[in-house]
């Protein structure tokens, strides 16, 4: 499958993408994960992206398009891909459209995960991530705690709150989403590619997507 997953931070794009990859071997491409790895590794890309990310701002379009232009050419995309967190602006969507045309790739559709802001705020402030870069398991102190508080079940490393998951940074990220990314739903609806899903549970979302693909 070749899908774009749209939705605010915390809407569940990553969780849904992971479940979908298990269905047919498509790869999840998360620009947020690629950028966090670049920051951690101290690459030139990471150095340019770091301050934007910490502030809850978007990284400039040119940097993101550079990443995606290369990523979509990699061999593992041949089985399909789930774009998680990209595109995030109208210019990114337009450039992606040009890129896909050039590569002769057709999207199946664009899924918009619609989750109320208060649910998202609660989810993100209670999210914890394993600090081990090779693991990065995700927990939630309310709904999915690790067995031992602050310790990853899978690898034993400390679990942490991401720099951009403080209440202030989250609020900024949601404002940025409303301003820059939410208009993409309308953009894709106009070109007949949008599937709106009221994302109550990731299982329900995966089912809605599988039904539409069938
Ligand atoms: P995410 O994990 O998808 O919420 O991304 C974390 C942060 O990475 C965002 O708050 C942005 O600063 C940056 N980022 C990720 N994807 C993009 C994108 N497509 N365009 C611009 N910035 C992005």
The helix/strand order is: EHEHHHEHEHEEEHHEH
The level of helicity is: 40-55%
Please give the count of helices.
Answer: 9
Q: Tell me the β content.
A: 15-25%
Low-confidence stretches: none
From the spread of the alpha carbons, the general shape counts as globular
- Total strands: 8
Please summarize the sheet with the most strands.
5 strands, parallel
Overall pLDDT, averaged?
Answer: 93
Ions, cofactors and other ligands present here are:
adenosine monophosphate
Computed structural class? alpha/beta
Q: If you had to describe this structure to a student in words, what would you say it looks like?
A:
This protein is of the alpha/beta class. It has one domain (2-26, 80-213): 3-Layer(aba) Sandwich (Rossmann fold). Helix content is 49%, strand content 16%. It is built from 9 helices and 8 strands. Strand 5 (127-130) and strand 6 (138-140) form a beta hairpin. The chain is globular, with a radius of gyration of 17 Å. The mean pLDDT is 93. The structure holds adenosine monophosphate (AMP).
Structure described in brief:
The chain is of the alpha/beta class and 214 residues long. Helices cover 49% and strands 16% of the residues. The strands form two sheets. A five-stranded parallel sheet has the order 2-3-1-4-8, with helices on both faces. Strands 6-5-7 form a three-stranded antiparallel sheet.
């Amino acid at each position: 499958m070749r899908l774009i997953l749209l939705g605010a931070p915390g809407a569940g794009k990553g969780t849904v993408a992971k479940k979908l990859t298990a269905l047919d071997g498509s790869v999840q491409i998360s620009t947020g994960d690629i950028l966090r790895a670049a920051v951690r590794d101290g690459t030139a890309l990471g150095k340019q992206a770091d301050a934007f990310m910490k502030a809850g701002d978007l990284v400039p379009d040119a940097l993101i398009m550079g990443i995606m232009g290369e990523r979509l050419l990699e061999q593992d995309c041949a089985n399909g891909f789930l774009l998680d967190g990209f595109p995030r602006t109208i210019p990114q969507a337009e450039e992606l459209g040009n890129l896909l045309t050039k590569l002769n790739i057709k999207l199946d559709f664009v899924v918009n995960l619609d989750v109320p802001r208060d649910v998202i705020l609660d989810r993100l402030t209670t999210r914890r991530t394993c600090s081990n870069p090779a693991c990065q398991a995700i927990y939630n102190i309310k709904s999915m705690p690790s067995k031992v508080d602050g310790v990853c079940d899978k690898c034993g490393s400390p679990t942490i709150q991401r720099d951009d998951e403080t209440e202030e940074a989250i609020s900024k990220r949601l404002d940025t989403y409303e301003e820059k990314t939410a208009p993409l739903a309308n953009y894709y609806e106009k070109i007949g590619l949008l599937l709106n899903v009221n994302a109550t549970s990731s299982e329900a979302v995966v089912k809605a997507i599988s039904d539409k693909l069938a």
